[in-house]
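Quiz preparation item.
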């Protein structure tokens, strides 16, 4: 840890990026106070899709982690991606070995990027790709500034809300390639299904997806 980091830890006591608990020093790993069931395993980690072959998830979007992911996404905490990316990479290595040639992400709209200041899915994808020894590249663009999925209730509203919101500016970049798409949260799967559908129609040979966390099954 650098001298600057130590000084910052004194001024701003570090918190766990997974449960929000105060910790002695900054870390990118879950702390001892994190719940033992933080990570998903087995069938809870893998979700089949229609337009994607499978989706893998690292953790459950619940409890203290839910609050930290919301801070990452909405409350100007882009540094959380440095902790979440390597964890998601471990899940991808285990459940999706050799299943992709390219890594990309589900982008936010230009309007959201301007107001938020960063694209959390891009940061997550970049940190995940780095941990996998690859580079995340932009393959999708968001062409409609639709409502936030988190503001909607019910799967039907969510599916309608994302219909036709993505485009592929350069189809030649993915033609015949297997693509891994990364996003932060999986709820109904509507966003990732639409992203995968758009990529497949543009020429991707296969699409697999990974989300850092998933909403608990009812």
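Solution:
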């Amino acid at each position: 840890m650098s001298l600057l980091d130590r000084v910052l830890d004194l001024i701003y006591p570090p918190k766990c990026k997974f449960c929000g608990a105060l910790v002695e020093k900054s870390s990118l790993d879950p702390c001892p106070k994190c719940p033992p069931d933080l990570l998903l395993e087995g069938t809870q980690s893998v979700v089949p899709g229609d337009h994607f072959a499978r989706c893998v998830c690292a953790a459950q979007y619940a409890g203290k982690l839910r609050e930290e992911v919301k801070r990452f996404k909405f409350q100007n905490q882009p540094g959380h991606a440095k902790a979440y990316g390597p964890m998601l990479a471990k899940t991808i290595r285990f459940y999706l070995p050799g299943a992709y040639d390219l890594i990309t992400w589900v982008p936010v709209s230009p309007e959201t990027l301007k107001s938020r200041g960063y694209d959390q899915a891009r940061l997550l994808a970049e940190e995940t790709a780095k941990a996998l020894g690859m580079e995340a590249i932009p393959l999708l663009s968001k062409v409609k500034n639709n409502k936030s999925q988190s503001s909607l209730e019910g799967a039907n509203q969510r599916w309608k809300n994302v219909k036709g919101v993505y485009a592929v500016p350069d189809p030649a970049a993915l033609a015949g390639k297997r693509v891994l798409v990364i996003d932060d949260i999986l709820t109904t799967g509507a966003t990732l299904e639409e992203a995968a559908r758009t990529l497949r129609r543009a020429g991707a040979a296969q699409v697999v997806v990974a989300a850092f966390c998933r909403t608990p099954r009812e």
